[in-house]
């Protein structure tokens, strides 16, 4: 059975188009606001949306997403409430949704309960950022039984053998971290990124999404000849922070929604203009 993620990447492949995966932290500044943001992102052309589950010790995240997690936790956001948010999104949108979480909240809920609840709400996949392939057997078995994709992370430091193992545990797509370190927008992509993508291509037939540091249309234009999707996170979370720093008023939420949509439209336009670059992918 194909998930929404499979179908979206299939459509992108047919069009020869780079996908845009948009990450935002659920509950920042509120869950009602996140619902508006998701719908705005989907309308603007985001192909997949990652809903970040806020966590008190987000080791992989840079300052921007750390602050978003703090705000969301202060608002009272929990994994259960994020799953409820997915159910609300599904009332009006079929955009593919990935729950992006650290493993502890999932483990605390219980794998069976989590998988059943997430699937029933309408989630399509899960990325547990600090779960290793070696410890994922039960997780993958249970999530797979509920038709949830399991996305894992590959890094520049991953050996060829390691990439094969990571890819074998993944479904939906493989998420490639463009550089070592934590999340955060950067001006330029790493020089060794093409080599990482080539190594990942040799390890799997899964779509490859590249994240960490992606924020500008120029980044997307470059990735159009390399990867299948660009993951944009900190740049979007920063738009929310800027628009709501004086308070999460109705007008601030509307301003944030508009800023998110404008950012994704610009990135999607760059993705479409980069169509011909895919003919020369290394």
Give me the number of helical elements. Answer: 12
Succession of helices and strands = HEHEHHEHHEHEEHEHEHEHH
Q: Helix/strand-derived class? A: alpha/beta
Distance separating the two termini: 31 Å
CATH superfamily, by name, is: Aldolase class I
Helix content: 40-55%
Largest sheet, strands/sense/barrel = 9 strands, parallel
- Give the overall pLDDT as a whole number: 91
Highest-level CATH class: Alpha Beta
CATH topology assignment: TIM Barrel
Shape: globular
Unreliable parts: 181-186, 275-282
Side-by-side strand order of the widest sheet:
5-4-3-2-1-9-8-7-6
Counting DSSP E segments of at least 2 residues, the number of strands comes to: 9
CATH architecture: Alpha-Beta Barrel
Strand fraction: 5-15%
How many domains, as an integer? 1
- Report Rg: 17 Å
Written account of the structure:
- There is one protein chain.
- The protein has 282 residues and is an alpha/beta fold.
- It has one domain: TIM Barrel (Alpha-Beta Barrel), CATH 3.20.20.
- Helices cover 50% and strands 13% of the residues.
- The chain has 12 helices and 9 strands.
- The chain has helices at residues 4-15, 31-44, 63-75, 79-89, 103-109, 111-121, 137-145, 160-169, 193-203, 217-223, 234-244, 250-273; strands at 19-25, 48-52, 97-101, 125-128, 149-151, 153-154, 174-177, 208-211, 229-232.
- Strands 5-4-3-2-1-9-8-7-6 form a 9-stranded parallel β-sheet.
- α7 (137-145) links the parallel β4 (125-128) and β5 (149-151).
- 50% of the residues are buried.
- The model is unreliable at 181-186 and 275-282 (pLDDT under 50).
């Amino acid at each position: 059975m194909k998930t929404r993620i499979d179908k979206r990447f299939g459509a992108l492949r047919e069009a020869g188009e780079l996908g845009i995966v948009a990450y935002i932290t659920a509950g920042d500044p509120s869950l009602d606001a996140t619902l508006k943001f998701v719908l705005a992102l989907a309308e603007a052309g985001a192909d997949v949306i990652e809903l970040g589950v806020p966590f008190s010790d987000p080791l992989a995240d840079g300052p921007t997403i750390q602050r978003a997690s703090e705000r969301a936790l202060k608002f009272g956001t929990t994994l259960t409430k994020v799953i409820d948010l997915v159910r609300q999104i599904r009332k009006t949108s079929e955009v593919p949704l990935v729950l992006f979480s650290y493993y502890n909240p999932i483990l605390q809920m219980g794998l069976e309960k989590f998988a059943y609840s997430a699937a029933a709400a309408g989630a399509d996949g899960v990325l547990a950022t600090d779960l290793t392939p070696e410890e994922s057997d039960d997780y993958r078995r249970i999530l797979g039984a509920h038709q949830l994709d399991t996305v894992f992370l590959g890094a520049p430091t991953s050996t060829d053998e390691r990439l094969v193992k990571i890819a074998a545990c993944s479904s939906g797509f493989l998420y490639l971290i463009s550089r070592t370190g934590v999340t955060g927008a950067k001006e330029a992509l790493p020089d060794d990124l093409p080599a990482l993508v080539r190594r990942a291509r040799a390890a799997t037939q899964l779509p490859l999404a590249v994240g960490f540091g992606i924020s500008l249309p120029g980044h997307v234009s470059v990735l159009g000849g390399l990867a299948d999707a660009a993951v944009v996170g900190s740049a979007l979370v920063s738009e929310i922070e800027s628009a709501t720093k004086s308070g999460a008023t109705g007008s601030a939420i509307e301003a944030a929604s508009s800023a998110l949509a404008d950012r994704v439209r610009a990135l999607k336009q760059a993705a479409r203009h980069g169509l011909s670059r895919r003919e020369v992918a290394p």
